[in-house]
Design a protein that fits this description.
Shape of chain A: elongated
Structural class of chain B: mainly alpha
CATH architecture of one domain in chain A: 3-Layer(aba) Sandwich
Low-confidence stretches of chain A: none
Helix content of chain B: 55-70%
Largest sheet of chain B: none
Largest interface: A-B, 35 and 39 residues
Oligomer: heterodimer
Number of helices of chain B: 5
CATH class of one domain in chain A: Alpha Beta
CATH topology of one domain in chain A: Glutaredoxin
Number of helices of chain A: 6
Distance between the termini of chain A: 112 Å
Radius of gyration of chain B: 33 Å
Structural class of chain A: alpha/beta
Low-confidence stretches of chain B: none
CATH class of the largest domain in chain B: Mainly Alpha
Largest sheet of chain A: 7 strands, mixed
Strand content of chain A: 15-25%
Order of helices and strands of chain B: HHHHH
Helix content of chain A: 25-40%
Strand content of chain B: under 5%
Distance between the termini of chain B: 117 Å
Mean pLDDT of chain B: 82
Order of helices and strands of chain A: HHEEEHEHEHEEH
């Protein structure tokens, strides 16, 4: 009966430096951490960033409500008043006549006014344009891409872009005649 | 005429009911069904202006207009999947309550799945090892107890 104990004892080989299960757990956790880090980086990158005055204004491609399209590059050499608005926004109604007036008064001196309808429907935006007899170009921001690029916090918001394509000023809220007078000289093309 | 009064009451009620249905402002059954379908879709979407408010519950004018747009698209014969995709394209991914299962944002689904699978594998391996250890530890003990001491 002396053979029994030797058969029941586990055969002990050299102990592994790191157990296989521990290795698998470490690998799984590492993969998860890498994926989480990538996701966090992407989410943070997608957050709207506040543009700084003097920085190049983000380029955009705007589908115009009246048809056709316009890019920021098309307006190179002109001062641009880029206005974000919506038909459901009450303060946008207050500033609409002022923007139209600014457009009519300055379009011959290479100042372009451009409206971007934010989170709006085409029919509602068109009604707004007709109600306020707006004649400057307006487009819809499909997918809120332009709004995200400019980091808008709401509507109305107006960005002033100089002829070199750099951001000269930002006005959050309904535009006032004083604000317009303050920013217009900054985007006036050199004559 | 003892039944005159109740009969008049019934007739009056019938006239009122018919009047209510024929009134132009009263919603028809088709309109109600369309509204129900509209709210079903709006429940899947989120207000792009608020944080954590569903489109069906949001009282902002922007959301009222968006619900009207859903209703119009349904009346035009668009199916709910098309409308949800259209909203995502028009108003941005924030209207979608959940990240899409494509592109980089699929990581939001992938990470928890990898975590669950990884934890499952880890737990399985640990359990298997514990069972093995118990077997290898317990069985010889019993046998050794049954063996006569030399």
């Amino acid at each position: 009966m002396s053979g029994h104990p030797s058969t029941t004892e586990p055969v002990a080989g050299p102990p592994p430096l790191v157990s296989r299960s521990l290795l698998l757990v470490v690998v799984a956790i590492s993969v998860m951490l890498v994926l989480l880090a990538l996701l966090a980086w992407r989410v943070l990158r997608a957050q709207p960033v506040a543009l700084a005055v003097g920085e190049p204004a983000p380029s955009f491609h705007l589908q115009l409500i009246e048809g056709g399209s316009l890019t920021l590059a098309d307006l190179q050499g002109q001062g641009v008043i880029l206005n974000f608005w919506a038909s459901w926004c009450d303060p946008c109604r207050d500033e609409a006549p002022l923007l139209e007036e600014a457009w009519l008064r300055n379009r011959d001196s290479d100042i372009a006014v451009l409206g971007v309808a934010h989170l709006d429907q085409k029919a509602a935006a068109l009604r707004f344009i007709q109600t306020f007899r707006i004649t400057y170009p307006n487009g819809r921001d499909s997918g809120s891409l332009i709004a995200r690029a400019y980091g808008i916090q709401g509507v109305p918001e107006t960005f002033f872009i100089d002829p070199a394509g750099n951001l000269a000023g930002v006005w959050r809220g309904p535009l006032t005649p004083d604000a317009l007078q303050r920013f217009l000289p900054l985007i006036q093309p050199a004559s | 005429m003892p039944c005159l009064r109740p009969c008049l009451t019934v007739v009056l009620l019938q006239v009122l009911l018919v009047g209510a249905f024929l009134h132009p402002s009263a919603p028809t059954l088709a309109q109600t069904a369309l509204d129900d379908r509209m709210y079903d879709i709006a429940r899947e979407l989120w207000c792009p202006l608020c944080s954590g408010v569903r489109l069906d519950a949001c009282e902002l004018q922007a959301c009222v207009q968006m619900r009207a747009e859903i209703r119009q698209l349904l009346a035009e014969g668009r199916d709910p999947e098309w409308i949800v995709a259209y909203f995502e394209e028009e108003y941005g991914p924030q209207v979608h309550g959940q990240p899409p299962l494509r592109g980089f944002q699929s990581l939001a689904w992938l990470v928890p799945a990898v975590a669950v699978v990884g934890l499952g594998i880890g737990a399985g391996l640990r359990t298997r090892r514990a069972v093995r250890q118990r077997r290898s530890g317990v069985v010889p003990q019993i046998r050794s107890q049954s063996l006569p001491k030399a």
